Amino acid sequence: MIALGLILLVIGLLAGISILTTIGVALLVIGAVLWVLGAAGHAVGGRKHYW
């Protein structure tokens, strides 16, 4: 999710498409939150770890 967000963010910035930039930032933030929760030992989506 983090990689997809980064790709969309870069494409959105290079192409000047603001919706891709917005979606990219949102996916980066959500991916980072899930990563931190998974690394802290909290179950995310029924899984012990989130990769």
Describe how the helices and strands are arranged.
Elements: H1 2-15, H2 18-39
Helix pairs in contact: 1-2
Task: Outline the structure in words.
Helices cover 71% and strands 0% of the residues. The protein has 51 residues and is an all-alpha fold. Helix 1 runs antiparallel to helix 2. The radius of gyration is 13 Å and the shape is rod-shaped. The N and C termini lie close together (9 Å).
Cα-to-Cα separation, first versus last residue: 9 Å
The proportion of residues forming helix, as a percent range, comes to over 70%
- Globally, the shape reads rod-shaped
Mean pLDDT score: 86
Secondary-structure element pattern, one letter each: HH
Number of DSSP strand runs: 0
Largest sheet: none
Helix vs. strand class: mainly alpha
Low-confidence stretches: none
Into which percentage range does the β-strand content fall? under 5%
Supply Rg.
13 Å
In DSSP terms, counting alpha (H) and pi (I) runs of 4 or more, how many helices? 2
Keywords, separated by commas or semicolons:
single chain; 51 residues; mainly alpha; 2 helices; 0% strand
